[in-house]
Amino acid sequence: MSSRAIVVAFHKYTPFGGEFYEPLLDLFLENIKKYRDEFDTLYLIDSLWGIPESKDYTVFKRELDGHHWVQFKWVIPKIKEESMLFLDDDVEIYKKGIIDSWFKKIEEGYDFVGSFDG
C-alpha cells in the first residue's frame, strides 16, 4: 500500500462572513475522523479561513491568489505521500470505504482517479 494524503483547499470566497464558513470546516473535520484509517496525512490549504494548527492535520497558508486549482498547484511539491486525493472544501463523505476505494484504484495501476462534483 502506498502512502496516502488527502489535500483540501478551504477557499473563502468573500472577505466577510467568516461565521458562515465555520460550520463547513467543523463538519469536515468531525466527519474525516471516521475514516482516519483510510489515509495517512490530511493537508488543509487555508485560503483566508484562519484554520487553527492541529496535530491531526497540516495547514498550508495560501501563497498565491486564486481558487482550488491555483492552491493545489503550489502545494503538490510539498506533499511527501505517493498518492494524493484532492477534495473541495464542501465535500462530505458519509460512508466508510469510499476514500479507501479511490486510493485502491491508484494502487491497482490507474494513473488518475476522479469523481464528479456538480
Short description:
This protein is α/β, with parallel strands linked by helices. The protein is built from 3 helices and 4 strands; from the N terminus they run βαββαβα. Helix content is 28%, strand content 21%.
Protein described:
Helix content is 28%, strand content 21%. The chain has 118 residues and is an alpha/beta fold. A 4-stranded parallel beta sheet has the order 3-2-1-4. The radius of gyration is 14 Å and the shape is globular.
Features:
alpha/beta; about 120 residues; 4 strands; four-stranded parallel β-sheet; 3 helices
Unreliable segments (pLDDT under 50, ≥5 consecutive)? Answer: none
Radius of gyration: 14 Å
Helix fraction, binned, reads: 25-40%
Main beta sheet: strand number and arrangement? 4 strands, parallel
What is the N-to-C order of secondary-structure elements (H for helix, E for strand)?
Answer: EHEEHEH
Mean pLDDT: 89
Helix count, DSSP H or I runs of 4 or more residues? 3
Helix- and strand-based class? alpha/beta
**What order do the strands of the largest sheet run in, or round the barrel if closed?**
3-2-1-4
Topology:
Elements: E1 4-11, H1 18-32, E2 41-47, E3 58-61, H2 68-75, E4 83-88, H3 98-107
Parallel strand pairs: 1-2, 1-4, 2-3
